[in-house]
């Protein structure tokens, strides 16, 4: 193995994920956390923006805490493809030698992180939920393992950069300060369309919602059998955001940006109502930090009850409308007797 | 352009996640507690690969990197319909993280002369999802992840995928050779036929390959080539929940009000 001098690597990098003029919220969550790491190690926080017409995202990255922003702006980067993104990112990593590189654990981030880490022979820790820099200056990347029963700390001593993908929703978004100063540098684009080995033929993307901010969530699972009506009614009555298990997303009942869990988002609302969700460990991983957890399920042995504070064993098609009615009544000022 | 495709499918033997127990003292996985099974998402990968072969013609070869006991998942793959299987096994692989694992599988794909590599989206034991992109990156091949459906276009020398992206879907064409990671649960894996099952268990022997057979230096794989190390493990107690079962919707609303999470 070729030995590298790890001391030649410095700075914390954050990938700012942008699609069609919209930045994935996890990017700002990473900037907030990375600012803390950079301040602790006395290094610069560098944001990396790849895409087409990404000036707004670059300026926003400064407002959210970046000292410097590297911008690779070219039509070859729109829409996203793993090979041009990977090649551009890898080029910058080799040229500038960052010590730490953080990427959102979205389908996009998980798709191309390896295309940077593999050629760089960098350590890449997947889906982290906690980050720290140890006394020796090493990144301590923590990730849940074995269905969330264990938190493993992953280190990368002899290789650089130290890369990690981080689940959406685990960190608070960085506050924005429009008066912050930062340097925006446009970098050389090293990828051409001729060299690409993939082509996006079609793209249908709706509005992506951010369930990670919600105070109250009503989440639906396979138990609703495609009929969302009672759950939507309950969500409205409780003034809650709709979320879903992977089953409900895979069936096409709910859009995938609302998925909670290991391959979805991490949420921590004050109230999480799980409706017709079995409570598979991959789902629990994404919602176990919620305040109060309530479950409605017709199977008294469903594992979700072990992860809930309160539960009703019953048919969701009966319980949800009833609960919605009661909640609405309570909301109605005429009914509330002070 | 190849008219018939060789499709390599990466499969892995993992501890059954329904049975897996964590040793409360060490916080480590008690491997003896859980039977070894095929990684769930790999069944979807096998099904997708078999459909490709059925459409294009050619062959499907299941491949795994693991100890000799991993032959079980190869036999299962052959019972499902794979034409052949490759067991990549060597002491030199011990301690591999995703970097050398994907290098080894990338070399195995080259060794098999694969046009396409199909994998499950991630494994249930380490769930990094990094191995499929890693295989593609090591070989400089195109990659398709979170795939819902594959459509072969042999006349174009491309593989087209409908894939899941944040907020929607896209259709992407990849030049061959390419790596595809199939999203868990996206197809209905076919059951193993009885005759194939008997054949797989009694007659079939997988091809074996060592690091050297794949042209790998022992230094390039295993723990020495793994950039990441486990620095520690702690057991985390999941949030303590009472799981109090109440009678009906009214009682549930009362409970939520007492927690002051609804007005
Ligand atoms: C690699 C991988 C990643 C994954 N990532 C995720 C993830 O991020 N998020 C996630 O959620 N899952 C994930 N999963 C899937 C997970 O393992 C489960 O398959 C999934 O969570 C099941 O969803 P469900 O509980 O909604 O559906 P089901 O398993 O179908 O359960 C439905 C539940 O509804 C109940 N029910 C049925 N009818 C009624 C009724 N009329 N009234 C009340 N209750 C009723 C049933 O008793 C049952 O408990 C992942 C799996 C893998 C392998």
Count helical runs of chain B. 6
Name the shape of chain B in a single word: globular
Helix content of chain B: 25-40%
Largest interface, Cβ cutoff 8 Å? A-B, 96 and 83 residues
CA radius of gyration of chain A is 22 Å
Named once each, the bound ligands are: flavin-adenine dinucleotide
Distance between the termini of chain B: 66 Å
Structural class designation of chain B:
alpha/beta
In the predicted model, the low-confidence regions of chain B spanning at least 5 consecutive residues are none
Q: Give the beta-strand count of chain A.
A: 18
Strand order of the largest sheet of chain B: 11-10-9-12-8-1-6-7-13
Strand segment tally of chain B: 15
Shape of chain A: elongated
Q: What is the first-to-last residue Cα distance of chain A?
A: 74 Å
The oligomeric state is heterodimer
Mean pLDDT of chain A: 94
The biggest sheet of chain B, with number of strands, parallel, antiparallel or mixed sense and barrel status, is: 9 strands, mixed
Describe this structure as you would to a colleague.
Chain A is of the alpha/beta class. Chain A contains eight helices and 18 strands. In chain A, the strands form four sheets. A seven-stranded parallel sheet of chain A has the order 7-11-6-1-4-5-12, with helices on both faces. Chain A has a five-stranded parallel sheet with strand order 15-14-16-17-18. The longest helix of chain A is centred in the N-terminal third of the chain and has 17 residues, at 25-41. Chain A is elongated. The mean pLDDT of chain A is 94. Chain B has 263 residues and is of the alpha/beta class. Helix content of chain B is 26%, strand content 30%. Chain B has six helices and 15 strands. Chain B has helices spanning 40-56, 71-80, 98-111, 131-139, 194-202, 249-258; strands at 5-10, 13-15, 21-22, 29-30, 36-38, 58-65, 84-88, 116-120, 142-153, 158-165, 168-175, 178-182, 207-209, 229-235, 244-246. In chain B, the strands form three sheets. A nine-stranded mixed sheet of chain B has the order 11-10-9-12-8-1-6-7-13, sandwiched between helices. A two-stranded antiparallel ribbon of chain B has the order 2-5. In chain B, β9 and β10 (158-165) form a beta hairpin. The termini of chain B are far apart. Chains A and B meet through α3, α4, β7, β9 and β10 of A and α3, α4, β9, β10 and β11 of B. β13 of chain A pairs antiparallel with β11 of chain B, so a sheet runs across the interface. Flavin-adenine dinucleotide sits between chains A (221-223, 245-248, 259-264, 276-278, 280, 282-283, 286, 296-299, 302, 315-317) and B (40-41, 121-122, 124, 184).
């Amino acid at each position: 193995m070729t030995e590298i001098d790890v001391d030649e690597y410095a700075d914390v990098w954050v990938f700012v994920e942008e699609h069609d003029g919209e930045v994935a919220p996890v990017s700002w969550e990473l900037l907030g956390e990375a600012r803390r790491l950079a301040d602790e190690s006395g290094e610069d926080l560098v944001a990396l923006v790849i895409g087409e017409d990404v000036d707004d995202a670059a300026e926003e990255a400064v407002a959210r805490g970046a000292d410097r922003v590297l911008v690779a702006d070219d039509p070859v980067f729109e829409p996203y493809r793993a090979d041009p993104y990977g090649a551009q990112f890898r080029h910058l990593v080799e040229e500038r030698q960052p010590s730490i590189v953080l990427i959102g654990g979205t389908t996009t981030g998980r798709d191309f992180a390896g295309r940077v880490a593999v050629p760089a022979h960098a350590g890449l820790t997947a889906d982290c939920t906690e980050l720290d820099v140890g006394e020796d200056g090493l990144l301590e990347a923590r990730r849940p393992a074995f269905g969330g029963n264990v938190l493993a700390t992953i280190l990368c001593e002899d290789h650089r950069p130290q890369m990690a993908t981080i689940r959406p929703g685990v960190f608070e978004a960085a506050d924005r300060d429009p008066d912050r100063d930062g340097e925006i540098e446009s970098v050389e684009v090293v990828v051409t369309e001729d060299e690409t080995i993939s082509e996006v033929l079609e793209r249908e993307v709706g509005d992506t919602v951010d369930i990670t901010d919600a105070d109250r969530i009503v989440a639906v699972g396979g138990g609703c059998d495609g009929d969302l009506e009672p759950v939507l009614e309950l969500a409205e009555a409780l003034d809650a955001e709709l979320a879903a298990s992977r089953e409900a997303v895979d069936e096409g009942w709910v859009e995938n940006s609302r998925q909670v869990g290991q391959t979805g988002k991490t949420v921590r609302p004050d109230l999480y109502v799980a409706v017709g969700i079995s409570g598979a460990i991959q789902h629990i991983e994404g919602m176990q930090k919620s305040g109060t957890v309530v479950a409605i399920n017709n199977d008294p042995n469903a594992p979700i009850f072990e992860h809930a504070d309160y539960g009703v064993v019953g048919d969701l098609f009966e319980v949800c409308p009833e609960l919605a009615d009661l909640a609405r009544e309570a909301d109605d000022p005429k009914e509330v007797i002070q | 352009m190849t008219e018939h495709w060789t499709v390599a499918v990466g499969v892995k033997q993992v501890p059954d996640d329904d049975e897996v127990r964590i040793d409360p003292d060490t916080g480590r996985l008690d491997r003896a507690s859980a039977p070894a099974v095929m990684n769930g998402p790999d069944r979807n990968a096998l099904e997708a690969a078999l459909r490709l072969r059925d459409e294009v013609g050619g062959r499907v070869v299941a491949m795994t990197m693991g100890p000799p006991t991993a032959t079980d998942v190869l036999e299962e793959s052959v019972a499902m319909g794979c034409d052949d299987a490759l067991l990549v096994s060597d002491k030199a692989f011990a301690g591999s993280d995703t970097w050398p694992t994907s290098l080894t599988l990338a070399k195995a794909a080259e060794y098999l002369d694969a046009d396409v590599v199909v994998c499950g989206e991630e494994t249930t034991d380490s769930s990094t999802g990094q191995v499929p992109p890693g295989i593609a990156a090591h070989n400089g091949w195109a990659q398709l992840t979170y795939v819902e459906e594959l459509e072969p276009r042999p006349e174009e020398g491309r593989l087209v995928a409908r894939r899941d992206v944040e907020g929607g879907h896209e259709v992407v064409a990849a030049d061959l050779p390419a790596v595809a990671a199939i999203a868990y649960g996206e197809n209905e894996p076919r059951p193993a036929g009885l005759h194939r099952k008997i054949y797989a268990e009694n007659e079939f022997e997988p091809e074996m390959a060592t690091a050297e057979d794949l042209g790998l230096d022992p230094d390039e794989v295993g723990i020495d080539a793994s950039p990441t190390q486990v620095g520690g493990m702690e057991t985390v107690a999941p949030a303590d929940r009472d799981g109090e079962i109440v009678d009906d919707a009214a009682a549930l609303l009362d409970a939520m009000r007492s927690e002051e999470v609804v007005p």
